[in-house]
User: Fold these one by one.
Assistant:
Number 1:
Amino acid sequence: MDSIINFIGHFHPLLVHLPIGILLFAILIHWLAQKEKYVLFKNIVPFSYLIGAGSAIVTCISGLALSTNVEYDTQTLFYHQWLGIFLALVSLLGVYFTKKNKARELKWAAITLLVLIFLTGHFGGTLTHGADYLTKGLKSKKATKARPNFSNVQEAILFEDIIQPILEEKCYGCHSDIKQKGKLRLDSKEWILKGGEDGLVFHQGSALNSPLYKKIILDPLDEKHMPPKGKPQITEKERVLIEWWINSGGYFDKKVKDLAQPGNIQMVLANFEKNSPKALNNDVPTNEIKLANQASLNNLTKMGVTILQVAKNSNYLTANFINVVKTNDTIDNLIKTVSPNIVWLKMPGIMFSNSLANAISYCDSLTKLSIEHSTITDNQLSNFQNLKRLHYLNLVGTKISLKGLLQLKSLVNINELYLGQTSITNKDAALIQKTFPKAKIIFGNYHTENIASDTIVLKVASKK
Ligand code: HEC
């Protein structure tokens, strides 16, 4: 039985067009028939109203079937449903008036129908496409989703000013007034506390017991992962903020300054402040440095490396090798020539050679090194013992062993260490923690994609 209802319901979006078209046609014919020239049309007015009314009734039935197995915003559904039923009734009246030749009444029925067609259609559109359905095309996407920017982030309300915009951007598409996938809405405190189909999604004080957070950190390929595959994902910085929000009590009204802020949170928060020097503190050395050799930068760019300035007036650079499969001697030498300027190196999946490892060892300003899924060996890793400024190291999916990692014990400033999908496991956590006392050690599957993408970076202007 359920599947029959389901089947009928599915026709609703298709069927709706029939009564709209036919009834508008009936009204037009009826209006034209009053003119001498079209007087013959009179003969088909009753018939037009009849099939219009018939299709309106069928559409109502399919609509009722649909509403039993898809969740919609109840208030909008209420209006849409009753306006639709009223519309079907008025169209039946139209049939009656044409039969009885009641011209005046028919005129009023026609006007009422026009209004009803418009209103019912409008609420129907709102149900499936959201309230800003009509105006959406007019607004530019960017303007609606400005990233919050504060002059003092400490005064911001954590939920409203920082967390909600993340949910709005990444979750509302399926969990708000527009759609309620999993019977879940996330667009207000009340809805978040209410939970979804499987119960509560949010446990104040424990991110790991909150499906709202747990689904974000699931393996991206897991079908329960949120947002679903192919949709814009939560970035590492956003993840950290959501985790912090829930773990520090999941308050909806507290200001940032009212909550304890671990080091990594301070850094992420500072990124919200416009031109905050703090934002880059941890990542960029404070000492002045000469401009890097422009010819070398140009050559690296030609080889597929993306070079960015870390900040507008800084000579420090990030180098992204995402388009480079394997370096050669030329690239390795170029890295050496610009090495003092490089603070972030992003080399996911790169084929390591001894000469590349050696070139990186010259980058003594380096604070972030992403070499996840690269072929680096324990032996090559030992080159990095002198990168004293390094505080972020991503070794996810590499062949590095515990012994290999411990060669870097001199790097006491490391505060983020990613070790997922390596032979190193949780049972070594205590030892690693002792070796890298400041580090937050992350074993999870969580894939950190964009280390630099959340920070304002500007392309190196080619200086003459
Ligand atoms: C493209 C649509 C889509 C987006 C975007 C999306 N979700 Fe979902 N979500 C779903 C679907 C479909 C389900 C139901 C299926 C399931 O439970 O896996 C669901 C279910 C859930 C559930 C379980 C609800 C319950 O009780 O069953 C949670 C929690 C959740 N989503 C959180 C989120 C969060 C947090 C975000 C934003 C970071 C998000 N979702 C973004 C489609 C989406």
Number 2:
Amino acid sequence: MKLKDKVIVVTGGAGLIGAAFCRAISAEGGIVVIADVDVDSAQNISDLIPNSTAIQLDINSKSSIEAVIVNLHKKYKKIDAVVNNAYPRNKNYGKHFFDVTYEDFCENLNINLGGYFLTSQLFAKFFKQQNYGNIINISSIYGVIPPRFDIYVDTKMTMPVEYAVIKSGLIHLTKYMASYFKSDKIRVNSISPGGVANGQPESFLKKYANYCNSKGMLDPQDLVGALIFLLSDDSKYIHGQNIIIDDGFTL
Ligand SMILES: NC(=O)c1ccc[n+]([C@@H]2O[C@H](COP(=O)([O-])OP(=O)(O)OC[C@H]3O[C@@H](n4cnc5c(N)ncnc54)[C@H](O)[C@@H]3O)[C@@H](O)[C@H]2O)c1
């Protein structure tokens, strides 16, 4: 029980990875807040997880984030950590480089990286008053290395330029905040997962796996060990680090 009675907010907690994070936090004795813009899905997931609660949160809305903080503080008297994991993207997200308009590029950066900034800023304000806190940002291998475009050949998929900029920016935002909050007992770290299997074409999975050690694309469950470690006191003195979990893909 590494997270006994810790109150932990997971943004995008109703998604593919977020739901696995929430189950793992609960299994370690934490009180998990499934905070998602899609509150119905969050509630469905919460119904299956002991010690969990669903709450509507839009990481692009200052008033929404502030309301969540006020509610949780009232209910639990404390918030131990926030996991920035939501994945907002606009309707044109996912295009090839020459098809990305300036407007879409800017909008996706705003809603994603901007949302991570806003959530971190408002939670950090609360953590400062509380005198401790823990922020974990979910980045990606594509924040660490440039895309391996060869694995996308013959598929409809690509690695969007916005994603690379958002995720690399997020790793540096993590280090910036870790340094900025050094004397405030607020820790900030990031996790950079490799690709998670979710119905991608077989040919893609094969090419991806050629870059890996033994598994290739991961399951959400493969990511939870690092999350629990960073949320727990086992990582008490770890600040501003980025943990890559990718079965060797980036090597
Ligand atoms: N899936 C992968 O292969 C992979 C790999 C590396 C990193 N990641 C990262 O992991 C995180 C989670 O990804 P996922 O695959 O689980 O995504 P997902 O699309 O399955 O889930 C994202 C969740 O975020 C919620 N969301 C969207 N906009 C929001 C907003 N404005 N406010 C609050 N919640 C909002 C959605 O409702 C959804 O429940 C993301 O940061 C993603 O970039 C994913």
